[in-house]
Amino acid sequence: MHPDMEILLEPLRASLHAVGDMLPRILLALVILLVGWLVAIVVRFAVVKSLRAANFNVVTRKAGLDGFLQQGGGDFDTIRLLGGLFFWLVILAALMVAFNSLGLAYVTDLIGRILLFLPKVVVAVLIIAFGAYFAGVIATLLAAYCRSIGLGDGGVLGQISFYAIMVFVVLIALDALGVGDIIRQTFLILIAAIAFALALAFGLGGQKHAAELLDRLAGARAQAKTPPEPPRPVI
Question: How far apart are CA 107 and CA 208, in angstroms?
Fold first, then answer.
């Protein structure tokens, strides 16, 4: 063959040789993605069925998370959200293995960082679900107790306790996400500003109402502690 033709065909041979080396890796990556997709479907199905069997949907419904997710008119609830998170955990793990087999280290590192973040999202969702459920139970019990002692503002106190507990729940969820101290400090500053504004407004305009509320509460407690009078003998 002519030397000039050899020079022209050499890059083509090198390209075909590189494609021949990459083809088995590409086929292996496709097989890994297919297996990962099938495993992800099974894992999502198992997670959803297990959570429904454990009546976790009762917790999320009473916590208000299902209603929040269904505001758009869909049939999406917290259990499906968790199932979707586990689905993408398996998919991202399969993608990381597939790209690692192709020698794409930068893409593998990027997917690995996302993969490490998703379990934190799962933990944060669980914290908010159980925290909101606990806050609702405490608010209901407090309102019922206030009604039992004759305090008319039990519903307001129950709502205050609910939001106070939810503040701590959100802070714990943010800490589980590991989003950094800046967001937590900003959130605390906002909460402190809101609390200061409410306290100032209540102190300036609600002194009389606060005094009446404390008087009613003190009277109700005194009445509850006063023993009943013994029955008088009949003469």
Answer: 65
Say what angle helices 105-148 and 78-101 make with each other, to 10 degrees.
170
Give φ, ψ of 62 to 5 degrees.
Answer: -70, -25
Q: Worst-scoring range by mean pLDDT, 184-193, 210-219, 221-230?
A: 221-230
96, two tokens: 């990381």
CA gyration radius, the chain = 31
Q: How sure is the predictor about 63, in pLDDT bands with cuts at 50, 70 and 90?
A: confident
What values do phi and psi take at 126, rounded to 5? -65, -40
Q: What residue type is assigned to position 105 of the chain?
A: A
What DSSP designation does 151 have?
A: -
Contact call for residues 87 and 43 (beta carbons, < 8 A) = yes
pTM for the structure as a whole: 0.68
> Beta-carbon neighbour count of residue 178 at 10 Å?
10
